[in-house]
Amino acid sequence: MTNYRTSFQMMGTIIELVVYHPNGEQLIRQAYQQLQNYAQRFTVNQPNSELMAVNHNAGIAPVTVEDDLFQLIKLAKARSQDLNNPFNIAIGPLVKAWRIGFNDAKVPSQNEIKAKLGLVDPTNILLDEANKSVYLSQVGMEIDLGAIAKGYFADQVKRTLVDAGVEHGFISLGGNVLTIGYSPKNSNHAWNVGIQNPLAARGDVLRAVPLKGMSMVTSGINERYFDVDGQRYHHLLDARTGMPITTEIASLTIISEQSVDGEIWSTAGFLPSVAEAMDYINVQAGIEAVAVSKEGEVSVTNGLVDQGGMIVPAEF
């Protein structure tokens, strides 16, 4: 079976695509263009993006956006209003204050943090379904889709490929993996995807997970951080305190059907303890998780079994 594959940089990460299809080369080109379009429209890193038009008009006027961006903001707002978890798309002002992941990252003053905390309430994102408009009701508010966008992009690319007749494929947007069918090359008829050990060097795989048409998304405190005076500050911020989340979790991997759900829960599940995270995720339909503690202990939700080198669905 002929397969086509490519790897390229976009959105600050490495993207890999594998497609089994006679017209795979053209389909990969189309996927590249699709991702490029999303990256230009949905980012906060380009001043003229469609999303930044919303942010620039905070406290001024509603902005009409394309339906896909509107629906993603609508979904993200709904998830952000659950105060039991740290997922929050209105966290943009805090992200900008910390700048974690950029060369000018810094610890904001307590006064600056206090000022930003008044701007991160997701209920102040006002949506008009009829006009597909988004209005941030306070000057200084900013939507940041960084915790959800890549999952949405991956889902849309998969939909396009499946509609074109692709039955086997692999989509990786950095730490976000989405599969189509199974890998024809593997004897277990699955895409075997590794979980990075968050306490070791890049490339050190802690466990592998066999995926068949499923998504796997990992977030970790080791991904983006900086050190000041012996203190490490990671990029997962708590909108209640303005500081990085205090947690015993080093990394959280979500296995789900939709990659956008994996993105949401890989942030939403970052609770203070592993036990709290497992209990919280166990009651979420269609969501499974693998948590690695700061001590290196691996925990899984009820639908998974840890076999040491491999983590498999309980019914696999």
Automatic annotation (TrEMBL):
<comment type="similarity">
    <text>Belongs to the ApbE family.</text>
</comment>
<keyword id="KW-0460">Magnesium</keyword>
<dbReference type="InterPro" id="IPR024932">
    <property type="entry name" value="ApbE"/>
</dbReference>
<protein>
    <recommendedName>
        <fullName>FAD:protein FMN transferase</fullName>
        <ecNumber>2.7.1.180</ecNumber>
    </recommendedName>
</protein>
<dbReference type="InterPro" id="IPR003374">
    <property type="entry name" value="ApbE-like_sf"/>
</dbReference>
<dbReference type="Pfam" id="PF02424">
    <property type="entry name" value="ApbE"/>
</dbReference>
<keyword id="KW-0274">FAD</keyword>
<keyword id="KW-0808">Transferase</keyword>
<keyword id="KW-0479">Metal-binding</keyword>
<keyword id="KW-0285">Flavoprotein</keyword>
